[in-house]
Every structure is written in structure tokens, then in C-alpha cells.
Amino acid sequence: MRGVTRSKVRTSLSAIFLTLTLISVVPAAAQQREGVPGSPSATTTIDGRYLPPPPPPFGGEINLNAVQSKPYWPARVVPPKGAPNVLLIMTDDVGFGAPSTFGGVIPTPALDRIANAGLRYTQFHSTALCSPTRAALITGRNHHSVGFGQISEMSTGFPGYDSIITRDTATIGRILKDNGYATSWFGKNHNTPAFQASQAGPFEQWPIGMGFEYFYGFVGGDTSQWQPNLFRQTTAIYPYIGHPDWNLTTAMADDAIAHIKMLNEVDPTKPFFVNYTPGGTHAPHHPTPEWIKKISDMHLFDKGWNTLRETIFSNQKRLNVIPQDAKLTPWPDDLLKQWDTLTEDEKKLFIRQADVYAAYLTYTDHEIGRVIQAVEDTGKLDNTLIIYISGDNGSSAEGSPNGTPNEVAQFNSVEVPVAEQLKYFYDVWGSDKTYNHMAVGWTWAFDTPYKWTKQVASHFGGTRQGMAISWPGHIKDVGGIRNQFHHVIDIVPTVLEAANISPPVMVDGIAQNPIEGVSLAYTFDKANADTPTKHHTQYFEMFGNRGIYHDGWYANTQPISPPWKLGATPNPNVINSYKWELYDLTKDWTQNEDLAAANPAKLKEMQDLFLVEAAKYQVFPLDNSLASRMVVPRPSVTAGRTEFTYTGELTGVPMGDAPSLIAASYTITAEIDVPEGGAEGILATQGGRFGGWGFYLVKGKPVFTWNLLDLKRVRWENPEALLPGKHALVFDFKYDGLGFGTLAFNNVSGLGQGGTGTLRVDGKIVATQTMERTIPVILQWDETFDIGADTGTPVDDNDYQVPFGFTGKLNKLTIKIDRPKLSPEDEKRLMQEGQRSNRMSE
């Protein structure tokens, strides 16, 4: 009890007694029993308050022998009668104005199909970032309430930001599974903490540990669709090896279709819950060449992003997904160029980028359409609730104003000039030779009619998502529009209400926090088409940008740094002095007319309300740091370790659980046996084609390569092949930078410095070379740390192709890391430099 006050104990005990009192007075739901009790075919529903349900009493008879006894089987748990199948779909990084369903020029026929068979929702909101939205989606709680105040790769040691969904917030997968559903998860899983993503576990925070019985997808923020970081359950799989035309977008649909078909044929009476979350359209944008040609032939983007905004805006009014009096927010001339001011080279490149992005969105939607069609082919469409959310946040601005052929470079604050993009990447844009992202001008246009983009929680360009819902026979206002204000936390209570399942008060003996969302099932009835929203208050926060909605009013801060400056170091001392805006959304749909100066009393009321909501949902402490959060130490299996030893082959260790060589000196020693005839292959590698390092033998010659974001490769090589026998190979690197420090996490200026590498063979120096710069923040995140073979992509395609297994014997590989420490004086100086830089940028 040390450190716990008596008042806190009293509060905790009071909460327990209150919970038990509430449990005792809530009436159990009426149970539905089918079949003869005790027979093999007997079924029952449960009241759902306690999960898993306690074992039922034995209802038969037991005597000395079986002939004189009566067997009794426990009834199989099934959902309530009429509970629908649920297909929950969410795409990635799609702005409100991108899909055709909400006025965009990019064809999305599957989303159109759901909207035309059901309802379009025009004021549905995300959190502005991917894994926070996904955590809210599967729990029905706000993202800070479940530890996802930001993505896991940037987690910090505070309850609202540690990226851990605690056991008092059971997911929709767990709730439905224990109530008799078949549950599955396909695609992106960005809710496993980055420091718990290895094959060593634990697996409680993986889909299969959160109530989803089947998982086929990738772990992390994004992945190549050509060579993905792919898992079935918790086992890494590599179906793309030897199949250059394989693409995850199609393969994932194939797997989901096969799974739905299997469920229907094995147990056609059992309803399913399928969480279908493809990687599209998060970067890298990886459609197949056929889809790129289809879109390119349509010439959708030849007139540029400014004209595109006007076209989308007009379409939106025609479709009535925005009011007729809505205003198109102004173009940010202080941040982005007008299309007419661009050079011909810029226009050529940017049109290519948009074509590939649009092809990716259309391709993703097409494969979603195949999954929907599979549901119809099983004969289950008439009792399937389909929720299709277009994007987990607004369109992404993480590609820089010029776009990038390698998003990993952009995350390390390295921008690739237009001329180089045209020369080296134009013809392969969207292939596995790029990790591509589009220019921010397109991003802003795809968020029409709103301001700002992904990451920006204060403005609807970051948070407003198009959504369509269909449920034949239950939603009869086919093709209707719903304008009620809602949020992603409202999906779980909507599904539970549709299935007539109560949220549990206790799971595995742990009292559950309340569901924080509000069911939007009331909007299904045509009579309620214009009923005011039941979701009265909603806060927003991401990286210090804030917003608060209450009964038609909205107050928000202004961003102090554009989201495409991923290496920015905002001054943490100004977080409480951001400028606030105020909007009356009943008259101003798009946050176009700021009323803060005209109505300071209302603004103060809303600011005070934000403080109340933020305290309630674990939003404090506010933190506006960005890339610097990615280098904060976390409780991974490598935390505090400086020496690592491996023997033989080990592949697939994710970045969050692997030793990091960033901003450090290090020594890698490989003790090997070379057989008669020589050896080659991987000794160790981390990362891949778009950023990483590799230690390997090529034609018997030891090589160490640093791939600096696919823009430059620095190579150390022994000039001669190794003779048969035992050898000791050593690569030693001395880093010139200052390293990390407590305060320096708010300033990355000390990162990415150079150093000198030395390759030794059997004690003899064979190559020495200096690197002027090193990768400052992160390697290619969808790749892994591998020993004895390579997965994913090679660090140098000219040297080898995966898996390139080592053909000798790797007796031992040791990595020793010497991470420099900052003195207090160094930290103070770096902080002062960062503050001066902030003032200049502001």
C-alpha cells in the first residue's frame, strides 16, 4: 500500500461496493433456450453480465454405473434470436472527400453499394490517427481511456498513452465471442504494443488475445502490400516469396472469403463478426499495375488539386452529404502551392502520385466488394449488419509537399527532390521498388470541404469520416442521409444493441469500465432521420491539438506545426497557450467562421468543458512532441540491455523487440564455420530495401551494408573470399553524436550524426569507412531483425534476394551497444537550440 493514500483506498472500495450494488439490481436478460435440456442439440443464450458465463449445474443423474445414470450436456451458448452477422469494415487514411460515395472522383462501388442499400452518415468522426481510432473502434471507449493517446510506436509511460488496452475494457471481439459469435480479424492490427509484438509474446494484446478467434493480417502502422509483415494467428508467414505478382490486398480478401465460406458450411446457424481492416490507403500506396492503368486512363487529376477541390465540393452538395449553404474552406496559401504555380515537372510527378493513390483506393474497395459479395453468396446478406467506415482518420499528409518515393525517409525528415523522384522512381511508382506517398496538395483536396489532415484532431480534415451502414429489413430508408454527430466509440454499442447483447459488467473476474459510446441504432428508423444526436459531448486530442464538441458548438486549438513536418520539435512550454477557435456547427458545417473573438464567454465555457472531459478520460498530461517520442525507451525485452547473443537462425523479430543501433556505437561479432566450397548468406540484418543494415557473405566475401533510406548505401567489403574453416568477423562502429537524454527527447537535433565503421576478419582490419550521416529516428518498420536469413526485402538488391540463408554454420553472433549519454549541460544546450528553432519556425 506504500504510496497509496487512505482517501484513494476509500474511493476504490466505494467504487467496488457501488459496482456490486449495480450488478445486484440490474435484472438478468431473459434467456432463450432451444432443444431438450441436456441433449447434445440444446442451446441457450446468456444474460452477458459475467464473461465467461459460469458453468451450468449438472442436470442429469450419476449412479454407480452408466446404465443407471442419466447424461446431461451443457447447452451450447448462442446469441439471441435475430442477432445479425456483422461485417465491420474500415479503410485507412481516407479523407472525407476521396470516395465517390461522399462526392469524390475516385470510384468506390462497394461503399456506394452499402450506402445505396442503407444509410450515409455525414458527421461521423475518428480520433485523427490510426491506432487510437482502432482502439476506440473495438472497445467503445475513448482512445485515451484505453491507453492509445497516440500510436504504440510513440507510447509513453502514462495511462492514457502507454498503448495497453487494459483488461477492464473488453473488446467487442471478446464480448461477442463469449455470447456465441464466431469472431475474426483481417488486415491491419495496430493495437498490439510495439514492445509486445515478437514471437516471444505475451499475446494478450494480439487479436487472438482480445477475443478474435482468427487473425490474418499485419502488426503495425503500415506494411508493403508486396512483401508484408504478415501473420496467421501469431505465426509469421511469407506467401509472397517466389510469387512477384502476389498482393496482400487481394490475398486478404481471398482469406476472408474462404473463412466466411468455411463458417457457413461448418455451422450455418452460428453468426459471425468479421473485423475487416485492409492496409489501403495508408502509405505505401501499392495497387496492382492493372488498377493504376484503369485510373490513369480516366485522367481524374490532370487539372490539379485546386480544381479537384471545387469538383468534389460541387459533388458533395449534389449528393446532399454537406448542406447547400456549407462553405468551402480556403486553400492554405501560406503552407501549400496553388496548382497553377507548379512547374511542368512537378505537375507530371504529382499527377502520377494521385493516380497511384486513387488506384489503391479503388483496388481496396473492389476487394472489399468481393468480401461483401461472398456474404451474399452464402445467403446471409439479409441478416448481416454491414458497417463500412471510410478511413480511420483524414487523408494523410505524411508524404511532404512533394510526396516521397520512400515514406521511411520522410519519417526521418529526409525529403527527396522532385527531379530525383522523376528520374529514379516515376516509372516504378506503386511497385515494390517504392514505399510511396503523395504530395500534401492532394491530401488537402481529399479532405474537402474541411481544413487540415490526418494527425490534426482539432479540425474535421483530420477527424470526419464518411460512413455507410446497411442492414436489410432493419434499415428501410434505403439511400438515406443521416447528419447526427457521432464518433467511432459509438460502433460497439451499436453492434451490441443490434445483437440484443448487454455489455458485460465483469470479464474474467475483472469489473469493466463503462462503454463510453452512444448507440446510433436509433438513426436506423426513418422516423428518426432528423432526430437530434444522442451523442452530446465529445473531446478530441492528438499531439497537443484539441477540440471539444457539445450540442452543436465546437471549440478547438490551432495547430502550431503542419503534420508533414514529422521531425518537428514543438516547444513543449507553449502547449497551454495554443490559440483557440470557436464554431457554431449548426450554422457553419466546415469550421469556416471563427466566433472566438465575438463570443468569448462561450469559448471559455467550451474550454472549461474540455478540461472536464480530458480529466475524465486520461488525456493528461498533454504532450505535443512528435518524432522525438519514437526514441523514448519502452519496456521491451531489450530495455536496459547492451549485449545480445544469438546462435543459428532466428527470423522475424520486430523492431520494437530488437536491439536498436540508432544513435549508438556498437560492435557486431560473428563466429562462423565456412565449409569446403565456401559459404554465403545472411549473418544478421535489420530493416530492408527502404532503410536498414545487413551483415552477410557474398560469394564468400564478408560485407556490411548500411542502406540509408534507399538514397545511398555505404558498403564495407573484404576483398577476398573466406577460406574453409573457422572465422571471426567483426563490424565496429563509433558514433560521433551525443545520443539521447531526458530533455533531448524533445529535440532530435542530436540524432543522425555520422561515425566511422571498421570491418575486421580474424583480427585484421580489411575495410574502414566514415559515414557523414546515419539514420536518425527509425528503420523500415514493417521489416524485422533476422539472424541467418532475411525476410521481407533485401538491404541491397544488387547483392542478394531473400531469404539468402547462410550456407555455413553460424556458431555465435554477438551485438554490443554503447549508447552515449548526454550530460545535463548537453541537454540544456540542445533544448535551447530546439526552442530557438521553434521560434524561427513559428
TrEMBL record:
Keyword Signal tagged: yes
CDD domains: PAS_like
UniProt-annotated stretches for the region Disordered: 820-842
Superkingdom per UniProt: Bacteria
Annotated signal peptide: 1-30
One Pfam family, short name: Sulfatase
Compositional bias per record (Basic and acidic residues), positions renumbered to this chain: 820-831
Annotated keywords: Calcium, Hydrolase, Metal-binding, Signal
Family according to the record: Belongs to the sulfatase family.
Protein name: Sulfatase
Gene source species: Beijerinckia indica subsp. indica (strain ATCC 9039 / DSM 1715 / NCIMB 8712)
